[in-house]
Amino acid sequence: MTVEETIKKDIETTFGELVRVEIERKHRVRAYTPRNMVLPMLAYLKQRGFHQFTLLTCVDWIKDGKFELVYNLYSLNYNVHVLISTKINRDKATMPTAINVYEMAFDYEREIHEMFGVEFEGHPRLDEFLLEDWKGIPPMRKDFDTRKYVEEKYGMKDLTKELFTRKEQPYRGPGSNG
Amino acid sequence: MSILYFFLYLLLVTIIGLLYMGAARKITAHIQNRYGPPVYQPILDVLKLFAKKDTASHGIMHSLGPVIAYTGIAATLLFLPLGNHTPLLHFNGDLFVVLYLLVVGPLGMALGAGESANSNATIGIARALSMMLGYEIIFFMATLPVFYHYGTASIYRVIQAQGAFPDWAAILFPISFIAGLFALQGLMGEKPFELVVAPHEIASGPMVEYGGKYLGLLQIWHAVGIIVETGLFVDIFFGPQSILWFFAGTFIVFFATVIVNAVMPRFRIEQAVRFYWGLPLLLSILGILQVYIWR
Amino acid sequence: MAMFYLLLLLVLVGIVSFVLGPIKVLRNIIAFLGAVTAFFYFLTNIKPGLIYSLNIRVYNVHFEAGFSSMFFGVIITALFIIFLIASFHEENDGAYYLFAYLTLTGALAVLFAKDLISFFFFFETMSLFSFLMVLKGKSDTSFRSAFKYLVWSVFGGYAFLMGTFLKVYYTHSVMIGDISYLAGGVKLLILILLLAPFAVKAALMPFHLWAPDAYKDSKDTFTVFFSGGLSKIGVFGYFLVLFKVFTEIAVKYPYFLKAFAWLGAITAALSGIYAFMQDDAKKLLAYSSISQLGYVAVGFGIYTHFSVVAALFHALGHAVFESLLFLVVAGVYYRTKTTDLRKMGGLIKRMPLSFIGLLFGIIATSGIPPTIGFPSKWLLYEALILKGDLLLTSLVFFASITAFLYSYKLVHGIFLGKLHEEHKNVKEAPLGYAFGTVVLLVPLLVLGIIPGLVIKPIDYIVRFYLKPELGYNLANMNTPLGHVNFPVVGLVMGLTFALSLFIYLIAGKSYRAEQTDNYTATEAIDEDFELHYAGEFYGFMKKAFGRPLTWSFEKILNAFLKLFSFLGEVARGFYMGDARVYLFYVIAFFALLAYLMGGKL
Amino acid sequence: MKLFKFAQSRSLWMMHFCTGCGAVELPPTMTSRFDMERFGIIPMATPRQSDLLLITGYLTVKTLKRVVRAYEQMPTPRYVIGFGSCTINGGMYWDSYNVIKKLELYIPVDLYINGCMPRPEAIIDAFLKLREMIDKGEANAWKKYIENYEWYKKNQAEVFDVEKWSLKK
Lengths: 178, 295, 601, 169
What we know:
The complex is a heterotetramer of chains A (178), B (295), C (601) and D (169).
Chain B: H1 2-31, H2 41-50, E1 55-57, H3 60-79, H4 95-115, H5 119-150, H6 155-161, H7 169-172, H8 174-187, H9 199-202, H10 212-238, H11 243-263, H12 269-276, H13 279-294
Helix pairs in contact in B: 1-10, 1-11, 2-10, 3-4, 3-10, 4-5, 5-8, 5-12, 5-13, 6-10, 8-10, 8-13, 10-11
Chain C: H1 2-19, H2 24-45, E1 51-56, E2 59-64, H3 67-87, H4 94-112, H5 116-135, H6 142-171, H7 184-201, H8 210-217, H9 220-245, H10 249-252, H11 254-276, H12 281-302, H13 305-336, H14 352-366, H15 373-387, H16 390-414, H17 431-449, H18 452-463, E3 471-472, E4 476-478, E5 483-485, H19 486-506, E6 510-512, H20 539-545, H21 553-575, H22 579-597
Helix pairs in contact in C: 1-2, 1-4, 2-3, 3-4, 3-9, 3-13, 3-17, 4-5, 5-6, 6-7, 6-8, 7-9, 8-12, 9-12, 9-13, 11-12, 11-16, 12-13, 12-15, 12-16, 13-14, 13-15, 13-17, 13-18, 14-16, 14-17, 15-16
Chain D: H1 2-10, E1 13-15, H2 26-30, E2 42-44, E3 52-56, H3 61-73, E4 79-83, H4 85-89, E5 111-113, H5 120-136, H6 141-147, H7 149-159, H8 162-165
Parallel strand pairs in D: 1-2, 3-4, 4-5
């Protein structure tokens, strides 16, 4: 049995039906978890040997009305990443903070709070982090219309229009709608 | 009439000092395999700085700081004999007058920079003053045997007491001469003792809040300072020279410091002070012992 | 008679101001008029060579006014007036003025005393009342500091008394007179014992421990007189002992003088280092004062004509600039209620006159021309090189470099930098302080440019004892080594300053930037941003010096204290045991006896 | 007067304030390969001492505040060179929510260098061009800033808090 399979089995036996674990590829195990199971799982994995909190990121599933939070843990012993993803409601998104388990989560949670507007309950310092004087909806949400914002704020109307007329299909880069 | 002569003399030495600075930049550039600016570049810089229209000042002392700095160095210059050339106030020139007048410049700059309240400036000044505990004392101890040997404290008389080439103090007191060279490097503020300015570290230290004409005054202060510092060294160690040879001598000494400057990294402050209290201090004490043995 | 009247006047004025204690205005007027009267009485009626003896039944108190007493007397009395005027701004009771006047009486009487017993008596009077003055100081630690001062003074005083007894025993005379003819060791012992109280007063290095605390904790205006005036008694004592009591010291004990000079240089250098590590303005100045008095000791130690002239001139200079610095700091304390350098800053905009006072004060302290600090330093260096002790010269030069460090720290901490929020409405120091500042600035500059004005009286003091070597007139000074024309130095500086100012004025305009408009790596800062760094100013020097900087005499003394208390504990153990311990002693004694007897028992 | 103008164009002190990724092109420009010191251009540590502000690449709003502050701290005459396409129209950040698009709206620019990235040759060419402009008296953008101060402040106010970030003179 490979390391990944062992870890998968361990998680499944510990948390039972509540989680769905997949081996995405070599060195990467992914666990889909309900919101309230995240912290127990982090705690479990930490004592299981996953000492490194690599990343906390967020995906905006606007059509489902969900945010997907992905906690990325890594173990130097096993050389395995465990991604814990959980979906939370998009409006009034809240999540208990993970800084009691992993101190590293401190800045990641601030960032997610700033960029997506997720409230981390129990986080001591959810204030201005990367942006300065930002008002309005957080910029990484998909309902934030970047182009409109840019047109209004930086006065780039002419240029974007020109871009649209020249190309038949509008360019859909990262951050644009849909 | 003599006042006009003073002013012309000062202007001339200032220009020569600026040309020395230009030469230093050129030499450094050539060492780094570059072409470098024209030699007269510092003169253009100073002209440009004086032409600046609105310069920020943080108060009266901040404005007067560079003025006092230039006062100090200009007064020192008038007391310094230029080799054999009949100096302006040689009858009055005395090592201690010169040494104490030399301090007026840094003090003025320190007072001015202090008022700007910039923390970089504060660090720079603290370093400048602490560095004096290193190089000033070594410079003083290196020159003491010479003055003691010739039985005078007057720079002019020390020059006259020395003879032609083999009779130089540099040859009579080689140990003190080497210690003096160490001290000169710090006195000129060149690397590895460039802690005061340190542009990459504390944003040019005391000069951080100075721009425009203030920086211009500080530039010409530095220019005259080069002549005075190397000139003092040449006077004490290289004996009587005609004015041309005097400037040649100062340029050679300056050239040496520039080359060291071009290839050296920078000390930390406590390293610099401790460095001076190591080998150079030992050398200068040996120099003093040498003169005792001779007597 | 005049001297007696003068002392009587001072005592009477002191008592009257004590009686008038609660009536402030009247008391102040009386105190002020008394001091001024005393000053002019001193100037007009007391001439060198005046002799007076007071017969108090069993003992004749002898007074004599010499050139040296005149010189120091004028300094002390003038400083007393400056102190008095400034002190009216403080909250003081009548007793304070009584003590102050009695301190002055003691000090002047010491200067006039001709026999050692009355000298001792007046010296102790001065010490006692100045102790009481320190006790009336401003802080909670005043008592401790004052007590420390008293202990050291008493130590010095009793050493003096012991020296007096020895001298009386060997020479059968209580008069201050020569002991050169005595036998070897006794002379030296008497010399050291007689010198001790003055070393304490002038804070020579092993005896300086009281000074920083006492200067810091005494009332600010009194410190002006305490540091500038009373320490002059120490210098006077050096002069007295080295020239009047032991005239042939240079022949008999040149090594003693050499040690004295080295001690002075070490005092100057070490105190300079301690000074620039202080974060409290008064403590910094206290160490600076000790350091400056070290030069005086060096001057006496070299014992040539112009070194002693330099020492006395430096004593005068010390009285001027150190008092000026203490006075300015007192004014600043009066307005800001702090002497902590870390809590001040930017006061130049609020207290310009005080700033000018402090600026010239530190220029003089550093010995930069054209101020009073320069001629004495110049003379001292000439004397040192002529004497040929180059290492000592280097040490003195080192000390004078430390002066740049601590004096810049002082002016930077108080006046330069950013104005703190709580000092936004601070006003210029009140009139009493301003008066003293202006008055002290006059000799500071005038004597720096024309030192000849006081070189002449000082020369009269010294030329009686040492072969005159110094050539001088009003403007020039000539030594075998060099020559300086001081007005020319001043003139050249003025001229070059005018030139620089001219360049400054014809160059482009400038505007006044806000304090927050500062290069902070282009970050926007607001008013309460900490821009001004004054504490730990030379913090990195701790790294450069390493451990030696952490050593101090206090630590050594504390180590002694621990050793003695340990020995005391051990000794106590011998006597305070119970019966079994004593039994053990007895048995041990017999066992030892048996061993020593070697079985013969 | 002519002498001063000559000196101004021959001695340009550049501010050592590297904003975007274009800063990486400056080290080769300074060092032995291209050696910009031969034109009298050297980097300076603080805005007080410099004449020339090089905007090397994109400016986020956060950086723009600092740039404006630095620009206002520089003594006049002062010159600005926009460097790379980011300063012209936002470049590859044309629709980023946090990068300004037209530098000219916020501070006056004397000269743009096109490209992403411009090579050191282009930079040196720009310096020479700027020198020419100063000689001819055309590099007057700093005057524009003083004359149209309100307009620039209005534009700046649209992206950040001008009250806090501009200097009071």
